[in-house]
C-alpha cells in the first residue's frame, strides 16, 4: 500500500515528536500533492508535487498561510474543521485561475510535536473528469443518433402491422422509409466501430506510393450520383504521375469522407476541387468547396466526434458526425495531420498533410 492509499480514521493520529526531516521524507514518497497545516493555518511542510501544483513560481510554500496559496474558503474551512474537531474531511475542488485543475482532496488530523495539525492529499483527477465528460457526451450522442431512426422504424412497422401492409399505394413507401433508417443505423454503428478500432491502435497501415490522380478519379466516380443530384462540379488538376506516400485504402477513406462532406454542404451548382501541393517534405492534399463556410468559433471543434454546426441540416443531408474524427485519426496514423480553413460565403478547404517518405 502506498502512502497515498493509506486509510485514515476519524480519531487523532498521534505521532511521537517526529523530526521535520522524517516528516518530509514521508510526504515526499507520495505522488499526490501533499502539505501539512498547523493550528495557525500555516503550511509547515509540503512535497515537490505540491510545490509544482500550487507555488506558481512564488517560492516555497512553507510558513505561508493556507489562504495565500489557495484562495478558496471551502478549503480553509475544511482544514480548520479538521484541526478543531479532529475529523477527516473529503471534498472535490477546481483550483487555479488559468489552468484550472480538479482535485479530490483528503484531509486528516494528527498531532505533531504536541500541536494539532492536518495533512492534505490533493489527487489530480482533471484528466479523469474530462474523460468522463467525453464518455457521457459520447453515450448521449449515440443514444440520440440511434433513437431517431429507431423511432421511425418502429412507427412505420406498427403502421404496417395495423393494416397498412395491405395498402398498395403506401406499403412500399413505408418499407422504403424503414430501409433508409436501418441503413442509417448500420452506417452509424460501422463508423463507431471503425473509430473505436483506430483510437485503440488496432488499425495498421501499409504505405506505398499512391497515384493520387487515379485515386481521386475513383472517389469522384463513386460520388458522382450525389454530385449530379445537386449539380456539383468535381474537379482536380493533379498530374497523372503525381504520387503520395500513404496507405491506399485509408487515403481513399479520408478523401471519400472529405469530398462527400464537400458535396453535401456545398451550394447547389457549386464546385469541389482537389489539389496537391508539396511543402517541407510533406504532401498536402486539399479538398476545397464553394459552400457557405464555417464560422471561426466552430473551427477548433470541427474534428470532434458528433460535433455538428447544424444538426437539422446534417440529418437532412445524411451523415453520422464521425467522418471528420475518422479523417483526423487516420491522418495522424500516417504521421501527418489534417487542418481546416474557411471563409464565410467563400467556402471551406480541408488539408491532409502527409510525410513524403
Would you write up a description of this structure?
- With 357 residues, this protein is α+β, with helices and mostly antiparallel strands.
- It has three domains: 9-124, PAS domain (Beta-Lactamase); 126-203, Signal transduction histidine kinase, dimerisation/phosphotransfer (DHp) domain (Helix Hairpins), CATH 1.10.287; 205-357, Heat Shock Protein 90, CATH 3.30.565.
- 43% of the residues lie in helices and 24% in strands.
- It has eleven helices and 13 strands.
- Strands 1, 2, 3, 4, 5 and 6 form a six-stranded mixed beta sheet that branches. A five-stranded mixed beta sheet has the order 8-10-11-13-12. The chain has a two-stranded antiparallel sheet with strand order 7-9.
- Strand 12 and strand 13 (347-355) form a beta hairpin.
- Helix 6 (171-199) packs parallel to helix 11 and helix 7 runs parallel beside helix 8 (248-264).
- The longest helix is centred in the middle third of the chain and has 36 residues, at 126-161.
- The protein starts with 12 loop residues before the first strand and ends with a strand.
- The relative contact order is 0.08.
- Residues 1-19 and 311-315 have low confidence and may be disordered.
CATH superfamily of the largest domain: Histidine kinase-like ATPase, C-terminal domain
Oligomer: single chain
Residue runs with pLDDT of under 50 for 5 or more positions: 1-19, 311-315
Please state the average pLDDT score. 86
* Alpha carbon gyration radius: 30 Å
Please give the domain count: 3
Helix content: 40-55%
Q: What is this structure, in a nutshell?
A:
With 357 residues, this protein is α+β, with helices and mostly antiparallel strands. It has helices spanning 20-27, 48-54, 66-69, 73-85, 126-161, 171-199, 212-229, 248-264, 296-299, 311-317, 323-333; strands at residues 13-14, 33-38, 43-46, 89-95, 101-112, 115-124, 208-211, 233-236, 243-246, 271-279, 282-289, 337-343, 347-355. The strands form three sheets. Strands 1, 2, 3, 4, 5 and 6 form a six-stranded mixed sheet that branches. Strands 8-10-11-13-12 form a five-stranded mixed sheet.
Amino acid at each position: 500500500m502506498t502512502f497515498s492509499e493509506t486509510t485514515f480514521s476519524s480519531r487523532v493520529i498521534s505521532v511521537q515528536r517526529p523530526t521535520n526531516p522524517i516528516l518530509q521524507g514521508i510526504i515526499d514518497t507520495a505522488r499526490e500533492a501533499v502539505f501539512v497545516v498547523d493550528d495557525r493555518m500555516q503550511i509547515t511542510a509540503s512535497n515537490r508535487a505540491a510545490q509544482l501544483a500550487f507555488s506558481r513560481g512564488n517560492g516555497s510554500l512553507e510558513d505561508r498561510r493556507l489562504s495565500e496559496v489557495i484562495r478558496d474558503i471551502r478549503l480553509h474551512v475544511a482544514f480548520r474543521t479538521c484541526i478543531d474537531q479532529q475529523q477527516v474531511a473529503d471534498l472535490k475542488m477546481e483550483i487555479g485561475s488559468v489552468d484550472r485543475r480538479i482535485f479530490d482532496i483528503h484531509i486528516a488530523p494528527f498531532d505533531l510535536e504536541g500541536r494539532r495539525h492536518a495533512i492534505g492529499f490533493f489527487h489530480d483527477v482533471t484528466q479523469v473528469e474530462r474523460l468522463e465528460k467525453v464518455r457521457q457526451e459520447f453515450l448521449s450522442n449515440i443514444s440520440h443518433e440511434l433513437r431517431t431512426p429507431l423511432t421511425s422504424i418502429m412507427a412505420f412497422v406498427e403502421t404496417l402491422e395495423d393494416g397498412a401492409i395491405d395498402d398498395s399505394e403506401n406499403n412500399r413507401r413505408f418499407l422504403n422509409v424503414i430501409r433508409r433508417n436501418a441503413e442509417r443505423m448500420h452506417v452509424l454503428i460501422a463508423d463507431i466501430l471503425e473509430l473505436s478500432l483506430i483510437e485503440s491502435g488496432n488499425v495498421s497501415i501499409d504505405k506505398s506510393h499512391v497515384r493520387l490522380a487515379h485515386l481521386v478519379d475513383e472517389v469522384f466516380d463513386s460520388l458522382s450520383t450525389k454530385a449530379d443530384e445537386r449539380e456539383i462540379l468535381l474537379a482536380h488538376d493533379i498530374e497523372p504521375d503525381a504520387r503520395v506516400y500513404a496507405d491506399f485504402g485509408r487515403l481513399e477513406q479520408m478523401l471519400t469522407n472529405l469530398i462527400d462532406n464537400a458535396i453535401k454542404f456545398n451550394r447547389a451548382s457549386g464546385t469541389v476541387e482537389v489539389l496537391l501541393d508539396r511543402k517541407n517534405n510533406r504532401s498536402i492534399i486539399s479538398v476545397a468547396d464553394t459552400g457557405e463556410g464555417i464560422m471561426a468559433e466552430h473551427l477548433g471543434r470541427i474534428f470532434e466526434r458528433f460535433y455538428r454546426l447544424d444538426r437539422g441540416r446534417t440529418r437532412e443531408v445524411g451523415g453520422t458526425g464521425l467522418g471528420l474524427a475518422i479523417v483526423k485519426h487516420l491522418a495522424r496514423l500516417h504521421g501527418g495531420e489534417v487542418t481546416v480553413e474557411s471563409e464565410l460565403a467563400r467556402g471551406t478547404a480541408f488539408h491532409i498533410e502527409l510525410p513524403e517518405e
